[in-house]
């Protein structure tokens, strides 16, 4: 039986809205372990990483040659420990499931998951998360994890940020509807596969995800699934810090997760659940249900 190790990373260093640090707690409370058991995997809860409160830290203390990346030192510190935990879990034959926290935790997940294996990733998100400190409109690192993992801009000099065996050719973005100009250039310039919401409108979720899996898994050892809950429409997932209208439906989201379950998930993360903006914990609940689908839960 597959063992899924739950690793909480309760940070909100990477987001401008406080509250996403309560994500792991809300997701557990929504019944994650039960859902995973029903999916036929064995959940093991590794608890939360210790994360110092943002109020005790200075967001701007890191001086970069150019650009802004708030709480970069704290992010580096958490992601270094998270990367080690993810790598250890994989080495023990488990499937790590990281609970954010904001999406900057993906820097840690990817660096750990791509340490001993060639990794492909599908990024289910309204956003591209490909900004660098120079191009970011916000200075928020949750908009930068993919640029960090791929070593773009000043991240090239930061060892902790690298995902050593993860290449842009095996990255696929699905569900885009809010992309910054520099991110658009990177997608075109580096040949990153990307599907917008219009692609999903035109071709349907099944075809899009089928192609995404094919590209992400081509020639690699395993698949990472990064699920930013703002991928879904805000009517389904109100508890997120950067909602964008026009996202996927509840059913499309499940269908996509069922497809990745068939492909096989080597590591996964659930990020950007913000309980302070949620309605009766429904976004956290949705996150648990989608994780169960991604690990093979079926009706019959
Ligand atoms: N993981 C997220 N929710 N990212 C939102 C990023 C928003 C915007 N593109 C930025 O870089 O600031
Ligand atoms: Mn997003
Ligand atoms: Mn994101």
TrEMBL record:
<dbReference type="GO" id="GO:0000050">
    <property type="term" value="P:urea cycle"/>
</dbReference>
<keyword id="KW-0464">Manganese</keyword>
<feature type="binding site">
    <location>
        <position position="228"/>
    </location>
    <ligand>
        <name>Mn(2+)</name>
    </ligand>
</feature>
<feature type="binding site">
    <location>
        <position position="230"/>
    </location>
    <ligand>
        <name>Mn(2+)</name>
    </ligand>
</feature>
<dbReference type="Pfam" id="PF00491">
    <property type="entry name" value="Arginase"/>
</dbReference>
<dbReference type="InterPro" id="IPR014033">
    <property type="entry name" value="Arginase"/>
</dbReference>
<dbReference type="InterPro" id="IPR006035">
    <property type="entry name" value="Ureohydrolase"/>
</dbReference>
<protein>
    <recommendedName>
        <fullName>Arginase</fullName>
        <ecNumber>3.5.3.1</ecNumber>
    </recommendedName>
</protein>
<feature type="binding site">
    <location>
        <position position="103"/>
    </location>
    <ligand>
        <name>Mn(2+)</name>
    </ligand>
</feature>
<dbReference type="GO" id="GO:0004053">
    <property type="term" value="F:arginase activity"/>
</dbReference>
<feature type="compositionally biased region" description="Basic and acidic residues">
    <location>
        <begin position="53"/>
        <end position="63"/>
    </location>
</feature>
<dbReference type="InterPro" id="IPR020855">
    <property type="entry name" value="Ureohydrolase_Mn_BS"/>
</dbReference>
<feature type="binding site">
    <location>
        <position position="127"/>
    </location>
    <ligand>
        <name>Mn(2+)</name>
    </ligand>
</feature>
<keyword id="KW-0479">Metal-binding</keyword>
<comment type="similarity">
    <text>Belongs to the arginase family.</text>
</comment>
<dbReference type="GO" id="GO:0005737">
    <property type="term" value="C:cytoplasm"/>
</dbReference>
<feature type="binding site">
    <location>
        <position position="129"/>
    </location>
    <ligand>
        <name>Mn(2+)</name>
    </ligand>
</feature>
<dbReference type="InterPro" id="IPR023696">
    <property type="entry name" value="Ureohydrolase_dom_sf"/>
</dbReference>
<feature type="region of interest" description="Disordered">
    <location>
        <begin position="41"/>
        <end position="64"/>
    </location>
</feature>
<feature type="binding site">
    <location>
        <position position="125"/>
    </location>
    <ligand>
        <name>Mn(2+)</name>
    </ligand>
</feature>
<keyword id="KW-0056">Arginine metabolism</keyword>
<comment type="pathway">
    <text>Nitrogen metabolism; urea cycle; L-ornithine and urea from L-arginine: step 1/1.</text>
</comment>
<dbReference type="GO" id="GO:0030145">
    <property type="term" value="F:manganese ion binding"/>
</dbReference>
<dbReference type="GO" id="GO:0006525">
    <property type="term" value="P:arginine metabolic process"/>
</dbReference>
<keyword id="KW-0378">Hydrolase</keyword>
